[in-house]
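Morning!

As promised:
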Amino acid sequence: MVDPSVMTGEHFWMGNIACAEGAISAGCRFFAGYPITPATEIAEQMARRLPQIKGVYIQMEDEIASMAAVLGASWAGRKSMTATSGPGLSLMLENIGLGIMTETPCVIVNVQRGSPSTGLPTLVGQADMMQARWGAHGDYEIIAYAPSSAQECFDLTVLAFYMSEKYRVPVFILSDGFVGYMTEKVVVPPAESIPQFNRQKPNVSREKYLPHHLADNEVPPMAVFGDGYCVHATGLTHDDRGYPDTTEQAQDILIKRLIGKIRLNIDDITRYEATYLDDAAMVVVSYGITSRVCAKAVELARSQGIAVGHLRIISVWPFPDHLFRWSFPDVKHWIVPEINMGQIVREVQRAVCGQGTVTPVSHAGGDVIRAEKILSVLKELCK
Amino acid sequence: MTQKETTFRIAGIGGQGIVLAGYILGNAATIYEKKYALFTRQYGPEARGANCYSSVIVSDQPILYPIICSPSIYICMSKKAFDADNACTVTPETIICTDKNVDISVCSARRYSVAADLEARHIGSRVVANMVMLGYVTALTGLIRKESMIESIHSAVEQQYLPLNLAAFNRGFSLYTSEL
């Protein structure tokens, strides 16, 4: 029987619709959110589709409540998601921190717009990269993917659910206003070939179950409310029973594990695409919509005899330091165009660690950077 | 980079169906012609009445670069929007289709004046002037088959408004063919 939740076939979708359908295809059956340009179409699509497939859509009173509802739904056993833009993400961050501390699988789509504050509601920005990484207080690691096409909005949302369930962590899709509205062909594969991961359940008796006790890896099995196990979830530092244990020793164990489960699995989480790296002395580093522009700039430069490569970072967090340090030792110049005044460029500087110069190509927001501008920077560096 | 792309820019005012026209064009090319299309839209936060633009790239190969600088075809439904368009430049090679009501000062070897607004009023509503224009441009360019455009309109327009939209599209198509 054909799975009605998966719209197998070819579609002409905007990135936002592809995000929603990717979520549904990954098994998401709960969405709570509050409309905001340029992310509203995700909520609209979920509102249309979820009731058709025994899912639940709730429009909440604000983004604070939306994120709380998403965490609650996940603890009730549903794969759950919300979508917003910068101003909404600012409100969600407190509860995203709670999601990190309680190891709650969920997906947050942030369709970035010009910012800060209300900024440019309908126009593109890429300035929430650090907010996604560090916005909630405290020390943690997070996972984030940045799509550059409508197809990737679908594929990476599927992947985001996969990683969120596997590592029990909120996962970001860092889309942007251009990708969100950009409408292109999206191919949805048959349901059976869409990768799914369902959170590991405890395989011990109720009496022996410890919610935060580690089994085979850094991620504890997750019993949800209603499974019949004794479950306690708290934002306080907790012991392996999930009960508050506000001691230095408990903090040391918990925080090191929350960070370790991401850092130790960076190879599994990382996605990137390297083009023309074999002979490149300089490399353009890009993510999100800027990748599309950089790809053209690199093609133009190559046609003019400039040996430039292109490294597209698909998984922005955890930042793939290892790519820079070990994979491309011959690169002398790194060029980082982004629609902000310099965020990921700092990560590149840190990762390159003095092995080559790092040049930002900044744009304050409102439009994508033109390929010609990147080309002129490449030519300048060749002189 | 050497691929042949046909690029459309549609400029108008919010409420004229500029976004819908762009979607129908891109959808027809992608789903019913099995080509590749990339459709973007630009507008401000206003609900209606402000400048609004659609850009559509159609190609036989996957489209990498999402930006149009000099469109192959510029469809102009508002002088205000056209004059304010900083993103696209019209060249002497650009085919320009304007509504007859719209008076813009621009040079082009191929410029067409289409009574889209007037014909839409005759059919029943000004809001389908976009469909008259789409029909005209479909006939003019021959890039996408009429049948594909009609299929796309079927998939994009609510059932109750289909007869009005299809009538407008067909009227626009025959406006061009009757000029031949």
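Chain B is about 40% helix and 20% strand.

Hope this helps with the figure draft.
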